[in-house]
Write a structure and sequence with these properties.
Blueprint lengths: L2 H4 L6 E5 L4 H12 L3 E6 L8 H8 L4 E5 L13 H7 L14 E2 L2
Parallel strand pairs: 1-2, 2-3
Antiparallel strand pairs: 3-4
């Protein structure tokens, strides 16, 4: 048994902010490799064909893209009703702010 077997995320959905590049992209791919479907959020995330989408799908997981700036100080937590319904709850790690998102995919 590998360490990854202890942290399987099969049947879970991960919401990853900043998913287009850097640490956010790396986390989206790692979560997919651990078995989670991924909802990626980034201010300039492409509707289809992004590098993060390709890598998540190569790991055999689903990817849904949302474009939105999660740093705008307007409300509570990133996501609209579609994200909330898909994830199942709106729990956030750390403090973040609600911004309008456009759903892709």
């Amino acid at each position: 048994m590998s360490v990854l077997d202890l942290f399987r995320l099969d049947g879970k959905t991960a919401l990853v902010t900043g998913a287009k590049r850097g640490i956010g992209k790396a986390m989206a791919v790692a979560l997919a490799q651990a078995g989670a479907d991924v909802i990626g959020v980034s201010a300039t995330l492409e509707e289809h064909g992004s590098a993060v989408e390709r890598e998540v799908r190569e790991a055999g997981r689903q990817f849904t893209a949302y474009a939105g700036d999660c740093c705008q100080q307007r409300r509570d937590c990133p996501g609209d009703e579609g994200v909330g319904q898909r994830v199942g709850r709106k729990g956030c790690a750390g403090k973040c702010y609600r911004a309008r998102l456009r759903r892709y995919g």
